[in-house]
Q: What sequence folds into this?
């Protein structure tokens, strides 16, 4: 007799992929509908929920390509990329990768980056919160130790880069946009910061130096290393101004000093 775990796995395989060998292990008693038809009801409900999640998460994509194109892409995606977790809020993270290899979208090279931005906005909205930086503790760190600090970004922060004018694409496809909706895809790329603040999720365009600083801090590099790389990326970069801004708007929320040199608990 199969274990509970085996039954659960076989049920998922039979439901999501129509695997008839897995279906036969479930012992479903036929009634008005046979076992295969009964599971089809579950399958349709599951896939229907996936489609609704994708439509809610990627409204800009849907507007860009039209309802019919989006529905076809979503249908292909949900049938080949079932959720790997119980929370549907985590479903759709691979949609940008899917679009990059989706043949009908091969002439729309900007679509995967748009999907990345919409996913970043979605996940930023539901990310955990964090208290602001302890400025009293930060001010107590000796000046010679500051370059050795590592810093923590707010859990809602997402950083993106694109060769396309991604922010312009996104703004031009918002319901309240008053422009003519035209976008010059050759206008240059974007470096973006997505974060949740008091007024909800915001998208900010970054300079090369700002993006380098935050990306390296996100990767747990020291402040000194991140600042040096940021200055190399952008000769207009000003570390003090950037730190003041990102501490004030809670992009940076915590720091850690080397052991024995004023590290936060």
A:
């Amino acid at each position: 007799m199969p274990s509970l775990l085996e039954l659960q796995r076989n049920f998922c395989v039979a439901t999501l992929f129509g695997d008839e060998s897995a279906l036969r292990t479930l012992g479903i008693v036929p009634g008005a509908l046979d076992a295969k038809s009964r599971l089809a009801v579950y399958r349709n409900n599951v896939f229907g929920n996936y489609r609704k999640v994708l439509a809610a998460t990627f409204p800009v994509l849907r507007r860009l390509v039209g309802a019919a194109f989006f529905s076809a892409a979503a249908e292909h995606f949900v049938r080949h990329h079932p959720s790997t977790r119980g929370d549907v809020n985590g479903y759709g993270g691979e949609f940008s990768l899917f679009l990059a290899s989706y043949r009908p979208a091969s002439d729309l090279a900007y679509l995967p980056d748009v999907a990345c931005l919409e996913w970043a906005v979605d996940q930023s909205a539901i990310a955990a919160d964090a208290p602001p930086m302890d400025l009293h503790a930060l001010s107590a760190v000796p000046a010679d130790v500051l370059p050795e600090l590592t810093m923590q970004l707010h859990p809602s922060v997402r950083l993106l880069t694109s060769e396309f004018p991604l922010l312009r694409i996104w703004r031009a496809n918002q319901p309240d946009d008053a422009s003519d909706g035209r976008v010059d895809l050759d206008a240059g790329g974007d470096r973006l910061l997505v974060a949740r603040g008091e007024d909800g999720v915001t998208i900010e365009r970054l300079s090369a130096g700002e993006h380098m600083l935050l990306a390296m801090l996100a990767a747990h590099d020291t402040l000194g290393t991140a600042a040096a790389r940021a200055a190399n990326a952008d000769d207009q970069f000003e570390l003090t101004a950037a730190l003041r801004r990102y501490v004030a708007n809670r992009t940076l929320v915590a720091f850690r000093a080397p052991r024995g040199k004023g590290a936060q608990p």
The CA atoms of residues 1 and 115 lie 45 Å apart.
